[in-house]
Amino acid sequence: MSYSVLIQPSGLRFNAEAGRSLLRAAEDVGVVLPSSCRNGTCRTCLCQVREGSVVHTIEWPGVTREERAEGWILPCVAEARSDIVIDVPLAASFGD
Ligand code: FES
Questions:
Q1: Rounded Cα gap, residues 80 and 71, in angstroms
Q2: Where does the 2Fe-2S ferredoxin-type domain start and stop, copy by copy (predicted)?
Q3: Ligand 1, residues 45, 57, 73: which to mutate, most atoms within 8 A of Cβ?
Q4: Which mean pLDDT values do the consecutive 10-residue runs of the chain (96 residues) have?
Q5: Which helix (DSSP H) or strand (DSSP E) does residue 22 occupy?
Q6: 27 lines ligand 1 (CB under 6 A)
Q7: What domains lie within the chain, and their CATH numbers?
Q8: Which of 14, 23, 37, 46 could form a disulfide with 42 if both were Cys (CB 3.0 to 4.6 A apart)?
């Protein structure tokens, strides 16, 4: 199962397999999102979901319940559960 991910405002798109973090799924196709710890602690990758469903794969990701309610996620430890749109102003593409 894989889901479509659209990154705004750049309009970059890629597919994310179930079981693959959004950060790694992006990197698989040359899309680089801000990151540092890659384990849900540092919040460097913090971004906001505009549409769709995302789950965190660790029990205590570094986002508060309030932030999660507003759609904030940590893509290094999050996976898509539907087609999604996320805001990542600093996303860059090193693909073709
Ligand atoms: S890279 Fe540190 S929380 Fe995602």
A1: 13
A2: 3-92
A3: 45
A4: 97 96 97 98 98 96 96 98 98 81
A5: helix 22-28
A6: no
A7: 2-93 (3.10.20.30)
A8: 37
